[in-house]
Structure formats: C-alpha cells, structure tokens
Amino acid sequence: MSTIRQQIEAVRAEYARLPAGLLAHVERVVAEARDLAARWDLDLDRVELAAWGHDLFRAHPPADQLRLAAEAGLPITETDRLEPVLLHGPIAAVVLRERLGITDDEALAAVRDHTLGAAEMPLIAKVILLADKFEPRKRQRTPVMREIRRLARRDLDAALLCWADWKWVEERTHGWVSHPAHWTARVRWVAEHHADRALPPILPLDDDADPAFGA
Ligand SMILES: Nc1ncnc2c1ncn2[C@@H]1O[C@H](COP(=O)(O)OP(=O)(O)OP(=O)(O)OP(=O)(O)OC[C@H]2O[C@@H](n3cnc4c(N)ncnc43)[C@H](O)[C@@H]2O)[C@@H](O)[C@H]1O
C-alpha cells in the first residue's frame, strides 16, 4: 500500500498530460487549501491529495466526460447531459479510487463534490470547494470571493452559504439550470443556518386581548 505522499506524487504526475493552465490553477488551489486547512487544524497531506485530484478531468472534452461517467456507472441527470463539465469531480473520484488506489473516503468526497457541494460534507470537502472558488486568480476575477475567503477563516458553513447565494445569481445570469444535487445541498445549508440561529417562539394569537378585534 502506498503512502499518502506517494499518492500525491502519482496524482500530480497525471497533470503532465493536461493543459498548463489547468496545472497552474490546481497549484493555486493546493496552496489555498493548505492555508485554509491549517487554520481549521486539518491533516495537510489529505487536503493536498484532494486538491491535486479535484480537477483531473476538468479539461476533458464534454463527450469524453459523458462517456467516462457512463463507464464509471455514475448517475447522469438531465442537467449533467446539458453541461457534462459538472461530471468532472465525480469521474475523478472514481478514477482516483479505482486506478490510483486512493481509499480516503473524505478526500474522495471532496473531489466528487467540489463543483456542486453536498448536503453532508466532511471538513476537507468544504475546504476544497471553497479554496477552488477563491484561489488568487478567481478572487481577482470575482472580487466578492475575497469576502467569502475572509468569512471562511471564521465560519466555513457561512462561507459555503454565501458562495451558494452567489452561485444562485450566477446561474440566473447565465440561464443555467440549478443542478438537483446543488439545490438539495443549498436547502440543507439554509435550514441548518436558520436552526443555528433559532428565533424566539411565536406566541399564540389572542384576538380578544387585541384592541383592534374588540371594537
Ligand atoms: N482545457 C483547458 N485548457 C487550459 N486551461 C484550462 C482548461 N480547463 C480548465 N482550465 C483552467 O483551469 C481553471 C480552473 O477550472 P475551474 O476550477 O473549473 O474554473 P471555472 O471554469 O472558472 O469554474 P468554477 O470556479 O465555477 O469551477 P467549478 O468546478 O465549480 O465549475 C466548473 C464549471 O461548471 C460550470 N457550471 C457550474 N454550475 C453550473 C450549472 N448549474 N449549470 C451549468 N454549468 C455550470 C461552469 O461553467 C464552471 O466553469 C480555468 O479557469 C482555466 O484557467
């Protein structure tokens, strides 16, 4: 069985066949994810492994992404057929497990869910999703990502929710459909956010005590 550092080197070697621009992005995500992981006291090697794996299939043509997803037995929704790029994380998670022998379930979940999020996410997955969204190039392109980055240092869940709000606007702007998996995650995050900030109980209405009703 290989060590985690050997697994990282094996995944990293795969980028030799991929576009230089993608490698540069992944290197930025690795640095960003390690920084955030250190703040949340996570195992840096496991986070780095997930960061290296997350975009292995990002640059593949859409037809290949659809074919690979079908070969891997992944569920393919109507939204995935319209936008096969949404399958690149799930494909990478399967290939990392089956071809590269990676068995760290939380790291694989982070790879799988880095585009859409999921209702249940281990800390590693939250860190990878957010680091991918606010690595330096992206926060230069989308300045609101700087605020989400600042928030992630204090509260990962609030940062995810803010990213989901931003994404909702992005989807409407581009005329994209919200992916069902992302919507399920978002609904859960909103419910958890409000549960954490419980409102005072609503008192029963007493119409008789209300002068407006006594008249
Ligand atoms: N072939 C290539 N050659 C050279 N460089 C390359 C390359 N491919 C990638 N790169 C480089 O790698 C960088 C990183 O790629 P990404 O990290 O995928 O960066 P991105 O395209 O800006 O998308 P995003 O940050 O939203 O990422 P996500 O996985 O969430 O989302 C992934 C995509 O899903 C799409 N998406 C998300 N939600 C969607 C929805 N609901 N409907 C439709 N599409 C949706 C968006 O188009 C988004 O771009 C690129 O910016 C580029 O510099």
TrEMBL record:
Transmembrane segments: none annotated. Residues 23-135 form the HD domain. GO terms for molecular function: bis(5'-nucleosyl)-tetraphosphatase (symmetrical) activity; metal ion binding; nucleotide binding. It catalyses: P(1),P(4)-bis(5'-adenosyl) tetraphosphate + H2O = 2 ADP + 2 H(+). It is an enzyme of class 3 (hydrolase). Its EC number is 3.6.1.41. InterPro entries: Diverse_Catalytic_Enzymes, HD/PDEase_dom, HD_domain, YqeK. Keywords: Hydrolase, Iron, Metal-binding, Nucleotide-binding. The keyword Hydrolase applies. This is bis(5'-nucleosyl)-tetraphosphatase (symmetrical). It comes from Tepidiforma thermophila (strain KCTC 52669 / CGMCC 1.13589 / G233).
